[in-house]
TrEMBL record:
One of its GO terms (biological process) is methanogenesis, from carbon dioxide. Pfam families: MtrA (PF04208). This is Tetrahydromethanopterin S-methyltransferase subunit A. GO terms for cellular component: plasma membrane. It is an enzyme of class 7 (translocase). 5-hydroxybenzimidazolylcob(I)amide binds at residue 85. It comes from Methanococcus vannielii (strain ATCC 35089 / DSM 1224 / JCM 13029 / OCM 148 / SB). The complex is composed of 8 subunits; MtrA, MtrB, MtrC, MtrD, MtrE, MtrF, MtrG and MtrH.
Length: 239
């Protein structure tokens, strides 16, 4: 039987919209923007299952709840992708690439993929603890999600050797021994606005590039005609 450890007191440590199952299970499920999948995931054997709508504070809560339970070794990302935030891709990028010195998730494509309250140490622990990230983004089939959960449970490596790590998001502290910090959560509305502004900016840049190309092409065409005409006159004058 796989070795198990006690999660942090009061686990899950970060509040949110989730359903909790057996805390000794090795599987946790993120259902992104979908609803109605969480209880099925718990019934299949997951330790915790819940949606994640934002690519900043939402992902921070996922990390906080996972690393505070060393029994969780598999993460399944399922459900419909959150438009604008692209939370599933950002969470997968966090697991694969970590964060930069500015707190940004490396390789993330969301609107504001920054970890303002979770530093490199907790992210590193998250990457070490999760041995496999199962990508079921845009999958809402409960049968497929159940199958993935049971497959992970069959490969349970046991709890991570290290004890639970607690990140107190609401209290404004990162981890024990670190300086306190003020939480600056980004609302979904603000993140969506930022995403739309970025899309508009990209479209404007694309339009400017097209206009620049067309202008260059037109000018080049005129110059070509002028040069051709000049050469033709020069040739005929020499005959």
């Amino acid at each position: 039987m796989a070795n198990k450890k006690a999660p942090a007191a009061g686990w899950p440590v970060a509040n949110g919209e989730y359903v909790v199952g057996n805390p000794e299970s090795c599987v946790a499920v993120v259902t992104l923007g979908s609803h109605g999948l969480d209880q099925a995931a718990i019934d299949a054997g997951a330790a915790i299952s819940g949606p994640c709508h934002t690519e900043n504070l939402g992902i921070e809560k996922v990390v906080a709840n996972y690393i505070s339970n060393p029994n969780i070794r598999f993460m399944i990302i399922a459900g419909s992708e959150v438009q604008g935030h692209i939370t599933g891709q950002c969470l997968k990028a966090l697991y694969e690439n970590g964060i930069g010195d500015d707190g940004g998730i490396i390789g993330a494509k969301g609107a504001i993929p920054f970890m303002e309250n979770v530093g490199k140490e907790p992210v590193g622990r998250f990457q070490k603890q999760i041995v496999e990230c199962v990508n079921l983004i845009d999958v809402e089939d409960k049968g497929k999600i159940t199958e993935a959960i049971k497959n992970c449970i069959s490969k349970d490596p046991g709890a991570l050797e290290e004890d639970a790590m607690v990140v107190e998001l609401e209290g404004g502290k990162k981890v024990a021994g670190e300086d306190s910090t003020t939480i600056k959560p980004t609302s979904p509305e603000m993140a969506l606005l930022e995403a739309r502004m970025r899309i508009i900016s990209e479209k404007m840049n694309e339009a400017a590039m097209v206009a620049k190309f067309n202008s260059g092409y037109y000018n080049g065409k005129i110059q070509g005609i002028a040069i051709g005409l000049f050469l033709s006159i020069l040739v005929f004058s020499l005959l």
